[in-house]
């Protein structure tokens, strides 16, 4: 049987880096130095807020001081960075200060109550494949975000002119010895915080969606093997005949989202021992097995409700932020290309543009996956040889199918449904704004 594990190990580390989740340093230190751990963690949080906030303020000052000069590229670039850093600050506050209880409840509810494998039957699936897929996806996603941040940090090194990664106004000469090194360090920390905050917020959404999809896989396999579970828990039911009926069903492509079905040897299946008085009637064992599936389905729906309540306000504002960022980054990228800017700068802007689009695609894609999985409970149930006991199961089947008929849809502000259509709409709107900006720029020239 698959062992219970911490499902959020990697994404939690990214939250630690962005200070979006408490590290609890006092728990790692001896009892007499716990106050020191609390003070260090608080100081770390204040320092990160200072770094991100002061960069956002400097960009606002840059826009204010250069507004009359008519340099649209500089203004758009400053506005782009301002939006990025303000969003970083909001994500930190939302996860760490505004909704820490909801975040902890969501993680604990999934971590402590998820099923590690499907019910006993002719086949089974576990959470091992789901966890492997979740860890693989989140690692690649994190590496991509941090790589983009690192590209911005190495630009001044390639130029060799003591410039800073972020071009913003300072009230003093930042190229002075020591001052330049300090500012370079602060901007480096700021860029890493941007990468950590963006990847943690959308990466956590991705991890949740994959894990819940894995729970759907376990539910589907339990429903498919519902009669096998009943037969194994009874003494007088022929397993071989039932096994042949179930195996005669045509194999379905993409039957599970991320799990691999493991086939059991029918001769090694052992009846479960219970503390109740042994009963052999079909109805009794069927109701027990079916109740476990219904309880698991309620657990999954509750997970999705908690997830939607936590993320729905964020994604409502995220749609607007992505529209503006896509438009602004694309505009600056086009201007840099026509102005014969360095290849490294164009590459960095292109990475920004790609990551903004990929982040929104990740959010919408996994919303679509959840929607599709939530509709497949009835299909999974019909994969079993249900027809041989239809008279005993009909009422329970109909109640279950009625309760699972309505699909679950993740939302943005309870107004928009997260799906691929929303992603297409956002991209279309963003490039419409880009055309408007380019027309404004041409008229200024």
UniProtKB/TrEMBL annotation:
Name the predominant localization. membrane
**Where is the chain membrane-spanning?**
46-67, 79-95, 140-159, 315-334, 346-366
Can you say where in the cell this protein is located? Cell membrane
Question: What is a single cellular component term in the Gene Ontology annotation?
Answer: plasma membrane
Record GO terms (molecular function) = odorant binding; olfactory receptor activity
Is the Disulfide bond keyword given for this protein?
no
Domain of life here? Answer: Eukaryota
Entry keyword set: Cell membrane, Membrane, Olfaction, Receptor, Sensory transduction, Transducer, Transmembrane, Transmembrane helix
Biological-process GO terms, alphabetical: signal transduction
* Pfam families in the record: 7tm_6
Secretion signal, residue range per the UniProt entry: none
Which InterPro entries does its entry note? 7tm6_olfct_rcpt
Q: How does it sit in the membrane?
A: Multi-pass membrane protein
Which family does the similarity line name?
Belongs to the insect chemoreceptor superfamily. Heteromeric odorant receptor channel (TC 1.A.69) family.
Recorded protein name is Odorant receptor
Q: Which gene encodes it?
A: OR83a.1
């Amino acid at each position: 049987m698959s062992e219970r594990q911490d499902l959020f190990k990697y994404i939690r580390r990214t939250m630690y880096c962005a200070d979006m989740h408490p590290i609890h340093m006092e728990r790692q230190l001896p009892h007499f130095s716990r106050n020191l751990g609390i003070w260090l963690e608080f100081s770390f949080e204040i320092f990160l807020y200072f770094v991100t906030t002061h960069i956002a303020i400097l960009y606002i000052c840059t826009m204010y001081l250069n507004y009359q000069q008519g340099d649209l590229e500089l203004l758009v670039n400053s506005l782009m960075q301002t939006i990025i850093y303000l969003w970083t600050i909001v994500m930190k506050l939302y996860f760490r200060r505004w909704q820490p209880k909801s975040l902890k409840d969501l993680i604990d509810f999934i971590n402590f109550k998820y099923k590690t494998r499907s019910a006993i039957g002719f086949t089974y699936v576990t959470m091992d494949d789901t966890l492997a897929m979740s860890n693989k996806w989140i690692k690649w996603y994190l590496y991509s975000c941090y790589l983009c941040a690192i590209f911005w940090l190495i630009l001044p090194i390639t130029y060799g002119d003591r410039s800073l990664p972020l071009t913003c106004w300072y009230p003093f000469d930042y190229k002075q010895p020591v001052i330049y090194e300090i500012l370079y360090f602060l901007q480096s920390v700021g860029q890493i915080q941007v990468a950590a905050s963006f990847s943690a917020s959308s990466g956590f959404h991705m991890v949740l969606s994959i894990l819940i999809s894995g729970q759907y896989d376990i539910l589907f396999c339990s429903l498919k093997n519902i009669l096998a579970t009943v037969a194994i828990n009874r003494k007088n039911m022929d397993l071989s005949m039932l096994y042949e009926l179930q195996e005669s069903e045509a194999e379905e492509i993409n039957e599970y989202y991320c799990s691999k079905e493991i086939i059991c040897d029918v001769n090694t299946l052992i009846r479960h021992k219970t503390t109740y008085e042994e009963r052999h009637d079909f109805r009794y064992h069927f109701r027990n097995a079916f109740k476990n599936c219904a309880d698991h389905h309620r657990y999954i729906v509750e997970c999705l409700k908690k997830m939607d309540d936590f993320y729905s306000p964020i994604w409502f504002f995220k749609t607007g932020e992505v529209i503006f960022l896509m438009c602004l980054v694309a505009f600056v990228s086009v201007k840099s290309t026509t102005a014969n800017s360095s290849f490294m700068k164009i590459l960095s802007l292109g990475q920004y543009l790609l990551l903004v689009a990929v982040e929104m695609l990740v959010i919408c894609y996994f919303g679509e996956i959840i929607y599709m999985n939530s509709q497949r409970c009835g299909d999974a149930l019909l994969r079993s040889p249900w027809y041989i006991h239809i008279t005993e199961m009909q009422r329970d089947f109909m109640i279950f199918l009625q309760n699972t008929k309505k699909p679950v849809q993740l939302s943005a502000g309870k107004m928009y449904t997260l799906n691929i259509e929303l992603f297409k709409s956002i991209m279309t709107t963003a490039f419409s704004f880009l055309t408007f900006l380019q027309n404004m720029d041409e008229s200024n020239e």
